[in-house]
């Protein structure tokens, strides 16, 4: 049987992607007990940073102008 405790849920994956500080928090919270969960949260946070920067540039250039 597969251990579901070491899997990051879809909800937390999306939240850590949209809000990278949440992903970093989840990484530091679960890094010792659940390494797979922590690694996925960290990867999601790292991917979320460029997406947030790109979204901010698009918002600033096209929407707020």
Q: What's the tally of helices?
A: 3
Question: How confident overall, as mean pLDDT?
Answer: 91
Largest sheet: none
Radius of gyration: 14 Å
Indicate the low-confidence ranges by residue numbers: none
Order of helices and strands: HHH
Q: What gap, in angstroms, lies between the N and C termini?
A: 54 Å
Keywords: Membrane, Transmembrane, Transmembrane helix
Transmembrane segments: 12-29, 41-63
How does this structure look, described?
The protein has 65 residues and is an all-alpha fold. The chain has one domain. 75% of the residues lie in helices and 0% in strands. It is built from 3 helices and no strands. The chain is elongated, with a radius of gyration of 14 Å. The model has no long low-confidence stretch (mean pLDDT 91). Keywords: Membrane, Transmembrane, Transmembrane helix.
Q: What are the SSEs and their pairings?
A:
Layout: H1 10-18, H2 20-30, H3 35-63
Helix pairs in contact: 1-2, 1-3, 2-3
Summarize the structure.
The chain crosses the membrane at residues 12-29, 41-63. Keywords: Membrane, Transmembrane, Transmembrane helix. The chain has 65 residues and is mainly alpha-helical.
């Amino acid at each position: 049987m597969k251990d579901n405790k070491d899997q990051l849920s879809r909800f937390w994956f999306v939240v850590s992607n949209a809000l990278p500080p949440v992903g970093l928090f989840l990484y530091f919270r679960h890094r010792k007990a659940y390494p797979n969960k922590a690694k996925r949260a960290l990867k999601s946070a790292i991917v979320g940073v460029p997406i947030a920067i790109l979204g901010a540039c698009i918002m600033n250039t096209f929407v707020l102008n």
